[in-house]
Amino acid sequence: MKNMLAQGWRPVLVIILLLILWEISSRLLDIPTWLLPSPTEIAREGVTSWANYQHHLFSTTKLSVIGFVIGVSVGLLIAVILHLLPTVRQAFYPLLILSQNIPIIVLAPLLVIWFGFGVLPKVLIITLVCFFPIAVATLDGFRQTNQELLHYMRMAGATKGQIFRKLELPHALPSIFSGLKISATYSVMGAVISEWLGANQGIGVYMTLAQSSFRTDRVFVAIVFIMILCLVFFGLIIALEKLLIKWRATEGE
Fold first, then answer.
1. Does the pLDDT of residue 245 top 60, yes or no?
2. How far is Cα 36 from Cα 146, in angstroms, rounded to an integer?
3. Does 250 have pLDDT greater than 50?
4. What is residue 7's predicted lDDT score, i.e. its pLDDT?
5. What confidence tens digit (pLDDT) does each residue in 59-75 have?
6. CATH of domain 49-252
7. In a 3-state reduction of DSSP, which class is residue 57?
8. DSSP strand E in the chain: where?
């Protein structure tokens, strides 16, 4: 913990210096607010307009959480099936990779045409961007299982289910949490993209309205809250990781 605090001040200092440089440049060069607002103008807009966009923020948070939970569940299920059934993995793993070569911005309008403007197409978009990192990371974690321990358990007469529950799954937890961290940030991005394509509320809608009215300060407010939301999700995953993988924390110390 002390090491994290000792190292954490450096990026904070860099961010503060960049904000100061941004503020000074905006004032000295007299940059118009509609082109590039200063950090103080962005902060002022974020505080004074809270009532105008708080429901957008809550809507995006709710959508991100729902899509993240479904995407992670689908990703874990796919990873377990592909791991336990090698024949299925050989047949479907290439399709799993090909699914990520389709741009979401192209696929999203099709989902809207097929499923309308409700919640379903938005959740599907978030699921599509979330399931792949967790599925690939989990499969890699399964493959990195200690072969000596695996051989020992087979020699001891352990069943395939016992090997999976007591060796392979615990061994893959660090990789699973690595995939969760990536998926957590992707879920927010997926939610914003889905809101761009058709929604009544959300940070994506707020950003689109601000951009069309040349309120660049509001666009930056939306960007700041997207970053904060991603950091909160990321921090929660790290806290859960430290809670569940205590042996890893002990080794690090």
1. yes
2. 53
3. no
4. 58
5. 999 999 999 999 999 99
6. 1.10.3720.10
7. helix
8. none
Q: What is the pLDDT of residue 8?
A: 62
Beta carbons within 8 Å of 154's beta carbon, 6+ residues apart = 163
Our CA angle for 132, 233, 172, nearest 5°, is 50
Q: Is the pLDDT of residue 120 over 80?
A: yes
Sign of the CA dihedral with 42 first, then 47, 52, and 53 last: positive
Give 36's contacts (C-beta < 8 A, 6+ positions apart): 26, 216
* Contact of 35 with 216, CB cutoff 8 Å: yes
* Model pLDDT, residue 26: 86
CA 17 to chain centre: 27
Angle at 201 between CA 65 and CA 71, to 5 degrees: 25
- DSSP letter at 89 equals H
In the chain, domain spans: 49-252
The answer to whether 105 and 204 have CB atoms below 8 angstroms apart is no
